[in-house]
Design a protein that fits this description.
Strand content: 35-45%
Shape: globular
Low-confidence stretches: 1-25, 549-581
CATH architecture of one domain: Beta Complex
Keywords: Signal
Protein name: TonB-dependent receptor plug domain-containing protein
CATH class of one domain: Mainly Beta
Distance between the termini: 56 Å
Organism: Psychroserpens algicola
Structural class: mainly beta
Strand order of the largest sheet: 1-20-19-22-23
Number of helices: 10
Oligomer: single chain
Radius of gyration: 31 Å
Helix content: 10-25%
Length: 798
């Protein structure tokens, strides 16, 4: 993707002089074009919680987007996900399959974990080409009740980190400057609502300011030559004083002020500096990591220049304003966020209906374009939860976090129910961030190289030890059909790309020799990639530790510990008491789809496989003239009608053997030959071909049914790296839904793959556990660049 260049069209307001527009040259623009030529992608993980109890699962929904367009990426199919401890030792790692920018999976918190903090990271191979923070990294908290008897809260020490950052990066003597203030505790969390004083070297108060809820604030200062300044405040009855970096005697100050129609860029200097600036050409570069706009200016004999940039010339989202001298040396920088053109939508009034032991929840998204693909993930928690405290949501993770150098506390705040106050507070935040994540030394001298590819599955090269084979038969897997390869005389190798092995699948290859007889192939396979690649995290980016706090009115885990043990004992009674029931439950609980076992009654009711499937959301056409006499495709769940297309034909297995195109075997199959059928309408876990859902048929071993395919004269190859299969997410059962433990650490449900209906309504079905106050943590995207990040509270009437 070649970056487009523009000469910025400006409206000059409050101009103290006028200069003709001209171009300094092509060095800046051409260097930026080279730097931005390779397209980027970014990833966000929506986790179902932030604090977990050992034995639970970490639910993961991955969104991979193109960084420039903010649309779901179609380039990469391979996403790597790791969990490491605070010593950066990897505890678990997986390869996830990305389909249309979406991947779903989970990690079980098993015996490999104990109480403590862990880091979960997600990245693609392509991201290794860039120094920018395009990957995802977040800290999570795990509690092992056998080790940790009390819920601990991070307690800040007297070690305080206070930074006072002049706008643009420089504090110049006798130049009025806005200074951003950020005061943090030893864990990196802002200290809220501090009242601070600014004093000079004679201890005279110059001004005062107050921090907001995130420990951020700002104040105006015109430093006098020869004077020093400091900030003082009181915290926990203790006085603190921090010096402000001394003002420079020479330099330029920057101020950026965004108003209704224009953004005003003010450049100021002092009399000591002015003579050296006159007749020098300076450039203001405006970019967003993808496109650069530039214009030039001179100081002449004025100490202050004010330029008005029409807000229509700003990029939607982040804008990075940099002032460079005639040698393209960056002098000043300031980030600005433009909410115009950023499509953040929220749902309307929710509708809740009780039906049996379920709650039917409908969330209308009236402004959502339902003609575009949309996808959501939702964590449903008790309203008083302490277990969901993520600093990022999908909006802040994609629109803001990749462009700053540090980790932003509660960055989701600026993208939920946006108000003018939040817009102002985000501007205060960006004043404290200093330089962006884009390094100008890298832009000019070290643009990224194309060293790492976009990955689409696994590839392998097959090398022959001798060529006595005329044909090779590659047997089908879930995501690959049967393939026959005709070999040419003397051909000693071939390459296979875009192979998507899952679970315990192997590559099975048979051969036909030159005499037309089946034979075992004489080949060896070399795979790529063979392992999950290492990934270096940006040194300037350190995710904040999760804050843990105790139960309300309690000092220990007694309720939780006893309750958890009771649940384990209850499970043991069920499992040992009813052996047949255990087999059925084991199968049902290990799958994503719904499982139907067939007894005499329902065998008589439906009789054939085709009739049964026609009652389960599929259109079944039997005895059709021509073809194989049997066709099946998924109905539209909204209209209960359907037209056959390539993306709504289900994947069908019989006894773990995949049927790719020939479904004629199902035409005459009777239910008395079947043990059970599993139907997964979502297709989650089925990889690239799961759009029409997955049907798995398990035959009765006592029946006379014969296997559909017999493999002979073949060789099996283990695949060193395979995609992890998405399994049915387990929601824990609790002994009490009224306890402090459940209300603070429990989870009600996790929806990892939901979309709206044709009317833009998101429909959920929850188990009604009599909890009357719920919170829905909703993340989602529509493929027109729309972001959905909201917290919805539901009150269930008894």
């Amino acid at each position: 993707m070649k970056v487009k260049s523009y000469l910025l069209s400006l409206t000059f307001g409050l101009l103290l002089f006028s200069i003709p527009a001209f171009s300094q040259g092509t060095d800046l623009m051409s260097s930026y074009e080279d730097y931005a030529e390779l397209e980027r992608e970014v990833v966000y993980l929506h986790l179902n919680k932030s604090t977990y109890i050992k034995g639970e699962s970490i639910g993961i929904k991955a969104y991979v987007l193109d960084k420039a367009s903010k649309l779901l990426s179609t380039e990469t199919s391979n996403l790597y996900c790791t969990i490491s401890d605070l010593n950066n030792s990897i505890i678990k790692k997986k390869l996830l399959m990305v389909n249309n920018g979406i991947a779903i999976n989970d990690f079980t918190i098993d015996s490999l974990f104990t109480s403590g903090e862990y880091k979960i990271t997600a990245y693609t191979n392509w991201m290794k080409n860039f120094d920018e923070k395009n990957y995802f990294s977040q800290n999570i908290r795990i509690i092992d009740p056998e080790v940790e008897k009390e819920a601990k809260q991070l307690k800040a020490t007297s070690e305080i980190d206070a930074q006072f950052l002049p706008e643009g990066g420089h504090l110049v003597a006798n130049v009025e400057t806005i200074i951003g203030a950020v005061i943090k505790d030893n864990f990196g969390f802002g200290i809220p609502n501090l009242e601070c004083e600014v004093k000079d070297s004679e201890n005279n108060q110059v001004t005062s300011f107050k921090l907001n809820q995130f420990g951020l604030g700002q104040f105006s200062l015109t430093p006098q030559t020869g004077k020093a300044y400091k900030v003082s405040f009181k915290l926990d009855e203790k006085e603190y004083t921090f010096n402000i970096t001394a003002a420079e005697t020479r330099g330029i100050g920057l101020r950026v002020n965004q108003q209704k129609d224009n953004t005003f860029v003010t450049l100021k200097t002092n009399t000591t500096t002015l003579s050296s600036l006159q007749n020098q050409v300076y450039t203001i570069a405006l970019h967003n990591g993808n496109v650069l706009k530039e214009f030039n200016f001179r100081f002449n004999d004025e100490l202050e220049i004010v330029k008005a940039i029409s807000n229509s010339d700003l990029f939607p989202g982040i804008n990075i304003i940099t002032v460079l001298d005639a040698n393209n040396t960056p002098l000043l920088e300031r980030m600005l966020f433009n909410y115009e053109g950023v499509n953040l939508i929220t749902s309307g009034q929710p509708f809740v209906k009780k039906k049996g032991d379920s709650l039917l929840v409908s969330l209308p998204y009236k402004s959502l374009n339902v003609e575009e693909f949309n996808n959501f993930s939702i964590s449903v928690m008790p309203s008083n939860t302490r277990a969901y405290n993520h600093h990022e949501n999908i909006s802040s993770s994609i629109l803001l976090q990749p462009y700053v150098r540090g980790y932003i506390e509660n960055s989701h705040y600026y993208f939920q129910s946006v108000t003018p106050k939040k817009q102002y507070e985000l501007d205060v935040l960006l004043r404290t961030q200093g330089w962006s994540s884009y390094d100008w030394e890298t832009i000019f001298n070290d643009p990224p190289d194309y060293d790492y590819d976009f990955e689409n599955g696994i590839s392998y090269v097959a090398n022959f030890t001798n060529n006595n084979q005329q044909q090779l038969i590659i047997y089908p897997t879930l995501n690959s059909p049967l393939e026959i390869i005709e070999l040419q005389p003397g051909e000693m190798a071939f390459e296979k790309q875009e192979f998507f092995p899952i679970s315990d699948e192997k590559i099975e290859i048979g051969a036909i020799d030159n005499k037309g007889k089946p034979t075992t192939p004489n080949i060896a396979l070399n795979f790529s990639p063979k392992r999950i690649p290492d990934f270096k995290l940006a040194s300037s980016y350190t995710a904040l530790r999760p804050r843990e706090s105790g139960f309300s009115g309690m000092n220990n885990y007694n309720d939780f510990e006893n309750g958890w043990r009771k649940i384990e004992k209850l499970d043991e009674v069920i499992l040992t008491g009813k052996r047949k029931y255990t087999e059925v439950e084991k199968i049902k609980n290990s799958t994503i789809g719904k499982v139907q076992f067939f007894d005499d009654k329902n065998k008589q009711k439906w009789q054939s496989v085709g009739r049964y499937l026609s009652t389960r959301g599929f259109v079944v056409l039997e005895n059709k003239a021509g073809g194989n006499g049997f066709e099946i495709y998924r109905r539209n769940p909204a209209t209960f009608k359907g037209t056959k297309s390539a993306d709504n034909i289900p994947v069908v297995y019989i006894d773990d053997i995949i049927l790719h195109q020939d479904l004629g075997l199902l035409r005459d199959m009777r239910l008395d030959e079947i043990d059970y059928i599993e139907i997964n309408h979502s297709g989650v876990g089925a990889g690239m071909r799961g759009g029409g859902g997955v049907i798995k048929i398990k035959t009765n071993p006592m029946s006379s049914y014969e296997q559909p395919t017999k493999k002979v004269e073949h060789k099996s190859f283990d695949v060193p790296l395979k995609f992890d299969v998405t399994k049915r997410f387990y929601i824990p059962k609790y002994t009490s839904y009224e306890s402090n433990f459940f209300n603070e650490y429990g989870i009600i449900d996790w929806f990892s793959n939901v979309s709206t209906d044709i009317d833009g309504v998101l429909n959920l079905k929850l188990y009604n556990n009599q909890v009357t106050n719920l919170k829905l943590f909703i993340e989602g995207v529509s493929n027109d660049g729309t972001f959905i990040s909201e917290v919805k509270e539901l009150k269930i009437n008894e």
